[in-house]
């Protein structure tokens, strides 16, 4: 065989001895050991000894993310652990593992204490102060996983628990609503006592009735349109007195103020006695009872006609015709009271007047209201403060827009407004036949399909397109059911305790009661006799 020339032969490979290879490998192993030992020293803390295998086991068992274990978000990590631990507490209790449930609860309290302390001092949690709690909670959560509280089981049990809790919450809310409504409708003993004593005084003291008649004959202010006329429809003597007194004390010209008060037959004598005995800086007060209004009869007033209907009577007074499906607040008979609906008949009640400010009896006046009578309503009938800063107070929240009659006539996003402090132009009212509009809608709601509750929904329908928005500072609402900003209260001309927590009730909101109570003279002999305090 012919051999290749030297130029075409393969180059000979140089081989490293085995000793060199082993030396290189040894060096690499040593370098790797040094690097790993340094990383272990960096991760370990001098104050807390941490076994390296725990992190891996926890990660496998509880599926805790790197973000949860990050030292940059210890607050979030603690919060997430607490939420998970609470779920495991429920499961542990249902599995009758009370000891483990106790351990979880104790660790939850420890973690919550850390978060609370950090929030109190307004500085973030540090890694050092939270690491022990995070580690101990993580170990407990891993232990929970080992006790076979797997995700599928936990979800199934939690769903059952949630359903049970929802049923309990629904029952509790229903009871709370009923008891709250009962408490709100309660007539305190002191108010009842005051009414009885005043009625006794009225019928037992001829001089009191004589004084009342003389004052009524001499008072020419009642029909004088140059005066500031206010009207209240109420059966609450003390609340009405607070409205009159607060208006008088904050008025620049109290001698120009006339209050027209309408009550019922039961409270008529007591109201007359109270406002005859007491004076309010020269304010004129007229007391009437709606039973004396001859035009107020079932042939003219839809509400009175509805009261004669047996189904309506059953709905409001028996509570048995729909198996309790309708909430109790919708079945309150006060919503059929003429004192509640008399606001829609103001021109008939005061035929000689041109402009009136309507006030509810659960308000307090803290500024001069004479400016209301110079406001230009731009041809509208009703001047009111709008309440649509939140979507809750738009028309679709009060009315049934599934009904074609409502849907075809009213914008669901139209802005709502509030009764309680309203300026009424009675000349425009009569011209527009606003009471007739109210009758139209009231007659079509006999079956309560257009709206359910109160006088505001029919008011929204009646004054739709006829309402002028007033500055919000004229009328501040919510003091009877929610927290109201102190700056709004300070600027408000009229403060409205709308809601169940009236200031004269035990369930009144304590921090708002002084705003109302400062207009009550608790040194008055009658109030002391009836234990007002």
TrEMBL record:
Glycosyltransferase keyword on record: yes
Involved pathway(s): Glycan metabolism; pectin biosynthesis
GO MF terms, alphabetically ordered: polygalacturonate 4-alpha-galacturonosyltransferase activity
Membrane topology recorded in Swiss-Prot or TrEMBL: Single-pass type II membrane protein
InterPro entries: GAUT, Glyco_trans_8, Nucleotide-diphossugar_trans
Keyword Cell wall biogenesis/degradation attributed: yes
Entry's EC annotation: 2.4.1.-
Stretches that traverse the bilayer: 20-37
Subcellular location: Golgi apparatus membrane
UniProt keyword terms in alphabetical order: Cell wall biogenesis/degradation, Glycosyltransferase, Golgi apparatus, Membrane, Transferase, Transmembrane, Transmembrane helix
Pfam families in the cross-refs: GAUT_1 (PF25557), Glyco_transf_8 (PF01501)
Family from the record: Belongs to the glycosyltransferase 8 family.
Biological source species: Gossypium darwinii
Gene Ontology cellular-component terms listed: Golgi membrane
GO biological process, one term: pectin biosynthetic process
Protein name in UniProt: Hexosyltransferase
């Amino acid at each position: 065989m012919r051999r290749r020339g030297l130029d075409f032969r393969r180059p000979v490979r140089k081989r490293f001895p085995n000793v060199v290879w082993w030396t290189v490998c040894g060096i690499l192993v040593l370098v790797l050991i040094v690097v790993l030992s340094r990383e272990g020293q960096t991760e370990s803390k001098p104050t807390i000894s941490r076994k390296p295998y725990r992190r891996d086991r926890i990660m496998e068992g509880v599926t805790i993310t790197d973000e949860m274990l990050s030292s940059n978000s210890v607050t979030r990590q603690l919060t997430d652990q607490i939420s998970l631990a609470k779920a495991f507490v429920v499961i542990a209790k249902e599995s009758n593992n009370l000891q483990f449930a106790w351990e979880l609860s104790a660790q939850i309290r420890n973690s919550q204490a850390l978060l609370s302390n950090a929030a109190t001092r307004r500085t973030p949690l540090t890694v050092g102060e939270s690491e022990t709690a995070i580690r101990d909670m993580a170990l407990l959560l891993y232990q929970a996983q080992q006790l076979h509280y797997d995700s599928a089981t936990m979800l199934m049990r939690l769903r059952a628990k949630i359903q049970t809790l929802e049923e309990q919450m629904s029952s509790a809310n229903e009871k709370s609503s009923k008891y709250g409504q009962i408490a709100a409708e309660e007539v305190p003993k002191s108010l009842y006592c005051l009414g009885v004593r005043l009625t006794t005084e009225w019928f037992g003291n001829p001089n009191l009735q004589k004084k009342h008649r003389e004052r009524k004959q001499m008072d020419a202010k009642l029909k004088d349109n140059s005066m500031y006329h206010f009207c209240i429809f109420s059966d609450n003597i003390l609340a009405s007195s607070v409205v009159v007194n607060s208006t008088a004390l904050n008025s620049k010209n109290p001698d120009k103020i006339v209050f027209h008060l309408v009550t019922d037959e039961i409270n008529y004598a007591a109201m007359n006695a109270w406002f005859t005995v007491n004076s309010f800086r020269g304010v004129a007060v007229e007391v009437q009872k709606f039973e004396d209004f001859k035009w107020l009869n079932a042939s003219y007033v839809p509400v009175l006609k509805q009261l004669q209907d047996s189904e309506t009577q059953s709905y409001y007074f028996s509570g048995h015709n729909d198996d309790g499906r309708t909430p109790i607040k919708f079945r309150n008979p006060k919503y059929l009271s003429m004192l509640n609906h008399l606001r829609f008949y103001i021109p008939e009640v005061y035929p000689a007047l041109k402009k009136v400010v309507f006030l509810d009896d659960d308000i307090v006046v803290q500024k001069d209201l004479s400016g209301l009578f110079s406001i230009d309503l731009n041809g509208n009938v009703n001047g009111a403060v709008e309440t649509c800063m939140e979507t809750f107070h738009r028309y679709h929240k009060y009315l049934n827009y599934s009904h074609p009659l409502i849907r075809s006539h009213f914008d669901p996003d139209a802005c709502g407004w509030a009764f309680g402090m309203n300026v009424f132009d009675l000349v425009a009212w009569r011209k527009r036949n606003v009471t007739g509009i109210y009758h139209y809608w009231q007659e079509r709601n006999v079956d309560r399909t257009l709206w359910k509750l109160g006088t505001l929904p029919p008011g929204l329908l009646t004054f739709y397109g006829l309402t002028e928005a007033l500055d919000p500072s004229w009328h501040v609402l919510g003091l009877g059911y929610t927290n109201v900003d102190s700056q709004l209260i300070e600027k408000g001309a009229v403060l409205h305790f709308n809601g169940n927590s009236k200031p004269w009730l035990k369930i009144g909101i304590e921090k708002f009661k002084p705003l109302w109570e400062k207009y009550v003279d608790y040194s008055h002999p009658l109030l002391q006799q009836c234990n007002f305090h």
